[in-house]
């Protein structure tokens, strides 16, 4: 019998009716039944999942191997049982809730064969509220590094592995881990790999979150999550990982796993359980992160991530609850501009009693994501003496406080790049032209204590142009542009401007809702007969 190219392993426990869609996607794989085998292990299902597996095995003889066993309490044992029966050159793990694109296995096997890959990642697509990694799937790549590629944030087992690698190193799932047992497995496979490839130009894997949230991962206790983190860090040390790799993975745990522990799950705990959660997490940080970890890692953490780290070390469940509540329920804390830096003023900012200096609240990198959403048009109209407008009068709320002397509203020619639509604002490149605002500008603190009202009277020029209305904010050496949006705000009526040389003023919003001021002659000069004939002749010659 010819060896299959790939063995697909499905650990199944009570996943009907989603299981049917998963199995359908497997039998429809374009790689062909002669190049694959499917091993499905029913881990004591009680909802008919086992019968559904048997139905597919009867319908597709030779393609399925179905194994029934008593419930083991997690996916580790079913996966290990299936691994012991696998015969394919590669092994691919698929969740019983999820499904594959028709060409997924064909493309991934081709990628693995082309590059002699040990691990192949196929692009993931989220269905429902499922959280998936994105950075690693930005581009198809023959070989990626572990650090800096996003691979450490794609740590689930839903990948294709060279089976020889698994057998050579005896890789198996830890059966004492009820959740996230795939983290140590995938991490070791990564570390032992020579080549890790990515298929990003095709939607390979569709990750589904059930509406009833019954997936075991979403019901995990914090003790189990911390146990997995400790096991993964222990395994990294045993494998002789470099300090750079250890730190990169430790930071990943802070960004992902601590964010999970100290998210909505934390608010659901009573005071006693919150205190226990903080003590257990602090013990893990003390054992695995070492002295000076905060100083070493803080520049790679966001402000909420730094604060979680700090409040856990400080043993302060109440401050953690404050932080989590503000992060999950809002509002976004005000952005303070001071001495060329920006700070997120979460609870505790500026209070030396709690021991975290202001630099712990400093916003590093771009703050475009904080500027765009909170910028709000308050009013816009033509202004001038009598019936002849000469200025544009604008009032805008900008979500910054503190040193707001650089905050201005201006009319800027040219289109914004698409990147400005990602966060509703953008940071200008170092070599981009920086225009100066014209007209009168005033600023005053808003009543909410978290924003500034900027009023501008911008002079208009009799010159044909389309100008974008934008807010300018300087933070140190960086300048930010925020397009002012007016989708839900009435625009001033178009006006004729001037008596002899009459121009038309018009305000509108573009497809993205950004305000555009259009200026042009009310009656454009017509071309002379000679000019029109020359244009006609020239056009004929071009044909």
UniProtKB/TrEMBL annotation:
Q: Name one Pfam family in it.
A: Glycos_transf_2
Using the record, list the residue span of the signal peptide; answer none if the entry has no such feature.
Answer: none
Q: Please give the Gene Ontology molecular function terms for this protein.
A: glycosyltransferase activity
**Limits of the Glycosyltransferase 2-like domain:** 7-169
Give the record's keywords alphabetically.
Glycosyltransferase, Transferase
Task: Map out region (Disordered) in residue numbers.
Answer: 420-446
Protein's name in the database: Glycosyl transferase
User: Organism, per UniProt?
Assistant: Streptomyces tsukubensis (strain DSM 42081 / NBRC 108919 / NRRL 18488 / 9993)
């Amino acid at each position: 019998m010819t060896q299959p190219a790939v063995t697909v392993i499905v650990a199944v426990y009570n996943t009907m009716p989603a299981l049917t869609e998963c199995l359908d996607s497997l039998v429809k794989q374009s790689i062909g039944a002669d190049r694959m085998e499917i091993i499905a292990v029913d881990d004591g299902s009680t909802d008919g999942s086992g019968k559904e597996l048997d139905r597919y095995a009867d319908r597709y003889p030779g393609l399925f191997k179905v194994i029934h066993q008593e419930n083991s309490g997690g996916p580790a044992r079913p996966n290990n049982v299936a691994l012991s029966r696998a015969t394919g050159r590669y092994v691919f793990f698929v969740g019983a809730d999820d499904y594959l694109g028709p060409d997924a296995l064909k493309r991934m096997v081709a990628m693995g064969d082309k590059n002699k890959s040990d691990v192949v990642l196929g692009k993931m697509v989220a269905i429902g509220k499922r959280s998936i990694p994105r950075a690693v799937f930005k581009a198809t790549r023959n070989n990626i590094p572990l650090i800096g590629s996003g691979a450490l944030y794609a740590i689930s087992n839903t990948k294709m592995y060279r089976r020889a690698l698994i057998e050579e190193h005896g890789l198996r799932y830890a059966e004492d881990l009820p959740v996230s047992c795939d983290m140590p497995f995938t991490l070791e496979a990564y570390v032992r790999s020579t080549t890790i490839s990515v298929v990003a130009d095709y939607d390979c894997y569709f990750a589904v979150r059930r509406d009833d949230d019954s997936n075991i991962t979403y019901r995990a206790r914090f003790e189990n999550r911390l146990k997995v983190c400790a096991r993964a860090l222990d395994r990294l040390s045993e494998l002789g990982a470099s300090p750079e790799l250890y730190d990169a993975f430790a930071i990943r745990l802070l960004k992902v796993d601590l964010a999970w522990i100290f998210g909505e799950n934390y608010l659901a705990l009573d005071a006693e359980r919150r205190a226990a959660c903080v003590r257990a997490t602090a013990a893990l940080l003390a054992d695995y992160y070492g002295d000076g970890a905060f100083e070493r890692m803080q520049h790679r953490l966001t402000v909420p991530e730094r604060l979680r780290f700090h409040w856990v070390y400080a043993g302060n469940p109440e401050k953690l609850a404050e932080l989590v509540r503000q992060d999950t329920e809002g509002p976004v804390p005000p952005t303070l501009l001071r001495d060329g830096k920006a700070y997120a003023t979460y609870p505790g900012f500026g209070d030396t009693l709690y021991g975290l200096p202001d630099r712990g609240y400093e916003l590093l990198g771009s703050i475009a994501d904080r500027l765009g959403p909170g910028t709000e048009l308050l009013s816009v109209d033509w202004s001038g003496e009598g019936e002849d407008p000469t200025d544009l009068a604008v009032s805008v709320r900008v979500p910054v406080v503190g040193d707001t002397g650089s905050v201005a509203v201006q009319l800027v020619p040219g289109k914004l790049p698409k990147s400005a639509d990602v966060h509703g604002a953008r940071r200008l490149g170092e070599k981009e032209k920086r225009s100066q605002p014209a007209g009168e500008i005033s600023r005053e603190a808003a009543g909410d204590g978290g924003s500034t009202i900027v009023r501008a009277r911008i002079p208009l020029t009799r010159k044909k142009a389309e100008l974008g209305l934008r807010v300018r904010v300087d933070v140190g050496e960086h300048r930010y542009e925020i397009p002012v949006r007016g989708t839900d705000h009435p625009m001033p009526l178009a006006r004729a401007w001037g008596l002899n040389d009459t121009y038309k003023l018009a305000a509108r919003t573009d497809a993205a809702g950004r305000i555009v001021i259009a200026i042009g002659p009310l009656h454009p000069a017509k071309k002379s007969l000679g000019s029109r004939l020359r244009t006609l002749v020239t056009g004929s010659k071009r044909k």
